[in-house]
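thread from #wetlab-drylab

HS: before we spend reagent money on co-crystallization trials with magnesium ion, can we at least see a predicted complex? here's what I'd submit
DV: go for it
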Amino acid sequence: MNNLKGIAASAGIAIARAFTLEHPDYSVTEKQVTDTDAELAKLDAALAQSQAELEAIKARTLQELGEKKAEIFESHLLILNDPELIEPVKSKIASESVNAEYALNETATQFIQMFENMKSAYLQERAADMRDVTKRILKHLLGLNYVSPSEISEEVIVVAEDLTPSDTAQLNRNYVKGFTTNIGGRTSHSAIMARSLEIPAVVGTKNVLSAVQNGDLIIVDGLEGDVIVNPTEAIVEQYRAKQDAYAKQVEEWKKLRSEPTVSKDGIHVELAANIGTPNDVAGVLENGGEAVGLYRTEFLYMGRDKLPSEEIQYVAYKSVLEKMEGKPVVVRTLDIGGDKELPYLDLPKEMNPFLGFRAVRLCLDRQDIFRTQLRALLRASVHGNLRIMFPMIATLGEFREAKALLEEEKAKLISEGIPVSEEIQLGIMVEIPSTAVLADQFAKEVDFFSIGTNDLIQYTMAADRMNERVAYLYQPYNPAILRLVKMVIDAAHREGRWVGMCGEMAGDATAIPILLGLGLDEFSMSATSILPARSQIGKLSRSDMQALAAKALEMGTAEEVVALVESIEAAAE
Ligand code: PEP
Ligand code: MG
């Protein structure tokens, strides 16, 4: 048995066999061969293995997910058997005496590039399919042992160095009971996705991948941040009891689902949810969310080969607005960059991606991308209660420029006879210290603020939110952060604006009493945190929390702030 400590990233307890996920290296080198027949035989064997694998996946997909999803694998089988791809590979091996993987890679790359350069959406999709099939054949040619996360078909806990947002998006909740990674923090995007999928997760363990063998029994305790490898029977029993107790607690919280969020002294606040896809709305409603406080639209742009069209975006935004049935939905415009990459944009690598060309900076430069998104949003606005929010605003100039583009697109749509809501509120994320400090000026021009503490903390403390070696500096309760939050809330309220918070701090049980005392109007968090937060706020009185917040602002360290909050909790018990 081996115990590892990490960061509790998504609540709950999972007990299952480990599935170690390592991204394979598909790179190939050209080699001259003397025995071309042996290379041809190797290719045939790899094709046969790929064929068997695809047929099995297709049959399973058909049974579990239906005909439509299974069609993808039918088209992969067609490519695998397409003589127009395979014959040129064979003749390259024979005529140039090169190794099979090189011949395949060269030939397929030519086809992929040709398809990608065509205008037709159908051919562009074929390029993506061909890339998948090529990887599958290469996997066998290179002897790589790799199962993609989407192919997992038994109950497991995924163990990985890190999970990219697209890996996380592929995880099937029916089989993936939990995950644990070497790197990442509570605000890394894999952790955020885990919470929206409601899968227990522990991240930032530093060494789980080397401590665990594929197939080991492991426990992931997403409440405490523990990973237990090969536990004894007695420990498994203990965790099963903890799992049951947590399930009972969740049942208790569920009773608050249709209740408003009111403090003990009658102050209403709004509890909203952060979502990444339209599918997440079901979880928001199930968990009693009163609004969507942050829709991270970048997931629409990831996991595909090209930018999503206006129509694709319109359908997604409309779907969220309709499902929320008139409750507010804050949609954040594209926030790509940092730890969220879009390979097809082919942006140059940067020394400091979190300080670089990301979010609204990219959108103001690539106006084609930004305008398409704004049009889709404006068109969708008539289907619900839409609020638009720009991320990573550092200057008032950026806000004005982004707003002007929105106004231009709105005027164009109206002149085309397309209806647009007149009620759209326009806000910004406050996640850069310059904007927090200048909040009084911003408050004159925006309808609302949403404080993005995930970034605000990393920029204020100069501590990369992804780097566990400086995680000790990533301090939500540092009085410096609390003072910035207070400045923003006070500045907004002086101008009659509302303030939300959509960073992870908004759902943090230690921060909530202080935020309530500081006067935060809207708390936006992972859907699963809403009911515990509602239960907590119901037991707090705002006037007491005002006094608590005033004390916290005068403390010198984060540790003192935590001790202060714990002392009032102890007194209340
Ligand atoms: C934030 O920075 O607090 C935030 C909510 O945005 P993201 O985590 O997507 O950067
Ligand atoms: Mg951010």
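DV: The chain has three domains: 2-22+149-252, 36-142, 268-572.
HS: ok that's useful, forwarding to the group
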